[in-house]
């Protein structure tokens, strides 16, 4: 079934987890601007441009995902969301300087292998 997907569907299947992963990196960056939990700090956070960018990515990802689901059964499509567990550490390494380990690489390989087993 995977071979019958259009290019746009493939972009959505891969792009949505990538947008979600990028949003997670932005959430982490936005967290650096937070103070103690208070109404004032929450209101300031709601105006934080980094948080707004993260929410925009999540919203865009959601809209794309809805169109993906129009073309792909949920049981197949949702397995691609597992890619967020591969993309987040990669983006965190690039943009936040977080370390990648061999254990991460092995885990990511298992995730991709699982996707192939489910959808192959």
From TrEMBL:
InterPro entries per UniProt: EmrE-like
Q: Which domain of life does the UniProt lineage start with?
A: Bacteria
**Record-annotated membrane-spanning stretches:** 42-69, 76-96, 102-119
Q: Which SUPFAM superfamilies match?
A: Multidrug resistance efflux transporter EmrE
Keyword annotations for this protein, in alphabetical order, are: Membrane, Transmembrane, Transmembrane helix
Coiled coil located at which positions? Answer: none
User: What protein am I looking at?
Assistant: Small multidrug resistance protein
Q: Which organism is it from?
A: Rhizobium gallicum bv. gallicum R602sp
From which lineage does this chain's organism come? Bacteria, Pseudomonadati, Pseudomonadota, Alphaproteobacteria, Hyphomicrobiales
């Amino acid at each position: 079934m995977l071979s019958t997907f259009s290019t746009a569907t493939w972009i959505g299947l891969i792009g949505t987890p990538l947008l979600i992963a990028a949003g997670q990196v932005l959430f982490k960056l936005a967290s650096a601007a937070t103070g103690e939990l208070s109404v004032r700090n929450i209101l300031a956070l709601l105006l934080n441009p980094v948080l707004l960018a993260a929410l925009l990515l999540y919203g865009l990802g959601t809209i794309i995902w809805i169109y993906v689901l129009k073309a792909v059964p949920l049981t197949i499509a949702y397995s691609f969301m597992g890619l967020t567990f591969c993309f987040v550490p990669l983006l965190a390494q690039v943009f936040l300087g977080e370390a990648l380990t061999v254990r991460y690489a092995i885990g990511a390989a298992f995730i991709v292998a699982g996707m192939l087993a489910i959808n192959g």
